[in-house]
Amino acid sequence: MKKVIRALNTIMTTVVAFFLCRSVFYIWDYYANPDAYAMWSSPWYTAMLWLGVFTLLVVLVCSVIKAVIKHRIQKEESTPAE
């Protein structure tokens, strides 16, 4: 179970790091090329918002899975062996 928790931590860290790096790129690109974003029908940060929603969902799902695993581990440890 420890390997699963470590894998979930790795997934969450990777997704959050990707979101942060990609967001910095979007902001930098917007300020470097504002005319390229002027012809879009949506605001320039729309792609960043969708990536943020995806990141939030992944972190939420991984956190719930981790909580369930930790709860099961605690339950098994507190149950007396027969």
Task: Give the topology, please.
Layout: H1 2-32, H2 34-38, H3 46-78
Helix pairs in contact: 1-3
What does the model show?
With 82 residues, the chain is mainly alpha-helical. It is built from 3 helices and no strands. It has helices at 2-32, 34-38, 46-78. 0% of the residues are buried.
Gyration radius, in Å = 20 Å
Q: Specify the structural class.
A: mainly alpha
Shape: rod-shaped
Q: Largest beta sheet, briefly?
A: none
**Strand-residue fraction?**
under 5%
Taking all residues together, what is the mean pLDDT? 92
* Helix segment tally: 3
**How many individual β-strands?**
0
In which range does the helix fraction lie? Answer: over 70%
Summarize the helix and strand pattern as letters. Answer: HHH
Which residues sit in consecutive blocks of at least 5 with pLDDT less than 50? none
Distance between the termini: 22 Å
Quick rundown:
By secondary structure, the chain is mainly α.
Features:
82 residues; mainly alpha
